[in-house]
C-alpha cells in the first residue's frame, strides 16, 4: 500500500500547456505539501494545506494553483507551462504542525518529473 | 526564520569507512531536526529525527546524529559505509512552534567507493 502516491510519475509537455499533478495519501494525515526539486536537487516548499486550508503559500508564480478537495488529496495545477517549470515535484503529508503530533516527520511521494519542451 | 547549511555538497568515502555529513542550522526558536535520504528516482525517506530528549538519536540503516545546541549542529554519522548508502542526504529544520514550515538544506551527495 503506497502511503503517498502521485500521478503521473513522468510528464512531458509543451510550453504553454496546462497540466495537473495529483496526490493522494492514505496515512490519515491532515496536512499536505508540494515541494519543487530543481536540477541541482535543491528542495523548496511551495504550498501546504491543513484540513483543506492553505497555510503555507511561498513565492510561487500564480500560474501554480493547488487544490485540496479533502484532507487526503492535494492536486497541483499549472497553467501556461514554461521551460523553467521543469523539475521534480514532490507531494508530502504529515500530521498537523499545530497539534500534539507536530514533532512528526513528513512522508513523501515518489515525485513527478515534469519536463517542459 | 530558520535556515540550514549542509557543508560539502559532495562527500566520497570508501566502503567500510566512517560517514560524516555535516549540518548546521539557525532557528529563532528551539528546532525539530530531521535527516532524510533520497535514493535515485525516489522520494525522500526519513532517516532520523530530533525533537526533544536525548540528543544522540539513532535512525535506520545504522545512521545516527547528535544534536549540539551550543554548536547549532546536527551532523549525521555512520561508522561503516556500505555501497547501498550512496544517495542524496538532506538535513531539515522545523521550528517547534506551529509554523509548520520545514526548511531543507541543499543536500549532500554521498558516493561510496568499493
Shape of chain B: globular
Q: What's the shape of chain A?
A: globular
Number of extended strands of chain B: 11
Q: Report the helical percentage of chain A.
A: under 10%
Query: Unreliable stretches of chain B, pLDDT < 50, 5 or more residues?
Result: none
Order of helices and strands of chain B: EEEEEEEEEEE
Work out the strand percent of chain B: over 45%
- Cα(first) to Cα(last) distance of chain B is 41 Å
Q: Most extensive interface: pair and counts? A: A-B, 26 and 27 residues
Radius of gyration of chain B over all CA atoms, rounded: 14 Å
Q: Order of SSEs of chain A, N→C?
A: EEEEEEEEEEE
Mean pLDDT of chain A: 91
Largest sheet properties of chain A:
7 strands, mixed
The total of helices of chain A stands at 0
Q: What would the average pLDDT of chain B be, to the nearest integer?
A: 92
| Structural class label of chain A | mainly beta
How would you sum up the major sheet of chain B?
A: 6 strands, mixed
Task: Report the structural category of chain B.
Answer: mainly beta
Can I get a quick summary?
The complex is a heterodimer of chains A (117) and B (114). Chain A is mainly β and 117 residues long.
Written overview of the protein:
The complex is a heterodimer of chains A (117) and B (114). Chain A is mainly beta. Chain A is 0% helix and 54% strand. Chain A has strands at 4-7, 10-13, 19-25, 31-37, 43-50, 53-57, 64-70, 73-78, 87-94, 107-108, 112-116. In chain A, strands 2, 4, 5, 6, 9, 10 and 11 form a seven-stranded mixed beta sheet that branches. A four-stranded antiparallel beta sheet of chain A has the order 1-3-8-7, with no helix packed on it. Chain A is globular. Chain B has 114 residues and is mostly beta strands. In chain B, strands 2, 4, 5, 9, 10 and 11 form a six-stranded mixed beta sheet that branches. A five-stranded antiparallel beta sheet of chain B has the order 1-3-8-7-6, with no helix packed on it. Chain B is globular. The model of chain B has no long low-confidence stretch (mean pLDDT 92). The chains are: A mainly beta (117), B mainly beta (114). The interface between A and B is medium-sized, with 26 and 27 residues.
Amino acid at each position: 500500500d503506497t502511503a503517498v502516491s502521485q500521478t503521473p510519475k513522468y510528464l512531458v509537455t509543451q510550453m504553454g500547456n496546462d497540466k495537473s499533478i495529483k496526490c493522494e495519501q492514505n496515512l490519515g494525515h491532515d496536512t499536505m505539501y508540494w515541494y519543487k526539486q530543481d536540477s541541482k536537487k535543491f528542495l523548496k516548499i511551495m504550498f501546504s494545506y491543513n484540513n483543506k486550508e492553505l497555510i503555507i503559500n511561498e513565492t510561487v508564480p500564480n500560474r501554480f494553483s493547488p487544490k485540496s478537495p479533502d484532507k487526503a488529496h492535494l492536486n497541483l495545477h499549472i497553467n501556461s507551462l514554461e521551460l523553467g517549470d521543469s523539475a521534480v515535484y514532490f507531494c508530502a503529508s504529515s500530521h498537523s504542525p499545530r497539534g500534539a503530533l507536530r514533532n512528526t516527520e513528513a512522508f513523501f511521494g515518489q515525485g513527478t518529473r515534469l519536463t517542459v519542451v | 526564520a530558520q535556515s540550514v547549511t549542509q557543508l560539502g555538497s559532495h562527500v566520497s568515502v570508501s566502503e567500510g569507512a566512517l560517514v560524516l555529513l555535516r549540518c548546521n542550522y539557525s532557528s529563532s526558536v528551539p528546532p525539530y531536526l530531521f535527516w532524510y535520504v533520497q535514493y535515485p528516482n525516489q522520494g525522500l525517506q526519513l532517516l532520523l529525527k530530533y525533537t526533544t530528549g536525548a540528543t544522540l538519536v539513532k535512525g535506520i540503516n545504522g545512521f545516527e546524529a547528535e544534536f549540539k545546541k551550543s554548536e547549532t549542529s546536527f551532523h549525521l554519522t555512520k561508522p561503516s559505509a556500505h555501497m547501498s548508502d550512496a544517495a542524496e542526504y538532506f538535513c531539515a529544520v522545523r521550528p517547534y512552534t506551529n509554523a509548520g514550515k520545514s526548511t531543507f538544506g541543499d543536500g549532500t551527495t554521498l558516493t561510496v567507493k568499493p
